[in-house]
Amino acid sequence: MIRSMTGYGKAEISFSGKKFTVEIRSVNGKTADIGLKTSQIPREYEHELRKNLINKLQRGNIDLFIGVDQEVAESGNTFNVVLIKQYYKELQEVFREIDQEVSSTELAAALLRMPEVREVQKKEMDIHDWKVLEECIYKAADNLDVFRCREGERLGQDLLSHIDNIENHLQKVEKLDPGRIVSVRKRLDDKLSGLGEDITIDQNRLEQELIYYLEKADISEERVRLSQHCTYFRQTMDQEEYAGRKLNFIAQEMGREINTLGSKAAHAGMQQYVVMMKDELEKIKEQVLNVL
Predict the structure, then answer these.
(1) Which of the four CATH numbers 3.30.2250, 3.30.230, 2.60.40, 3.40.1130 does domain 7-73+125-149 have?
(2) Per-residue pLDDT tens digits for 263-283
(3) pTM score
């Protein structure tokens, strides 16, 4: 079963008085491009995390977000007593010079608004906390994969409908082929008969040239190969876990056969079905770009 490259996964975990919300979003891309849109991941673990996410998610433009909500008040914030005393002395001198009386309450409020009077003690994430957060990240990646599988099922149904349409158009081309050969031969005979009786024609050479021309216009090989490519497309969707690149190559081969078939056809009815097959193939190529 194929997977879509587009997806979304979310997971949550609480520890150390904080609630961490991990979100991973993915869109299609030729390679794996992991964007860590967060400052919660310690730098020493970034390389390993990227490698593991690539192994899990394979391809796509993937962005990881981590939101943090404080559930328990932190006790690590302290006042810079030395700086507060310095500010206090300087403020007293300023108010004394301008002969302005200030109450202790107003002075305290002014001190608390001064820069850097409160020190925030940032706690580094230890190895145990990181392991807990890492598991949450991988859970979000697993949820993203579930989303991709669900989208891949819908995408696969759409692709198969286009393959069905190409095969149906090909069957109609096959029905028109015998009549096309007859009309081509009749058209050549009519042109030869209009040359006049004074022109001598070597019938043996004419038959040889006619057979050569009809062989050049024969589309049997193209029809067989196109049918085989459609079958191989279905098999690849069923059997390959990550089929995107291979399906793209098969679609290119299908395009070559459809183009050759159209150039050889020389039949208005066939050309219409060729155009319809090209339209279906373009839709396939657009959708295959989103297959993992």
Answers:
(1) 3.30.230
(2) 887 778 888 999 999 999 999
(3) 0.73
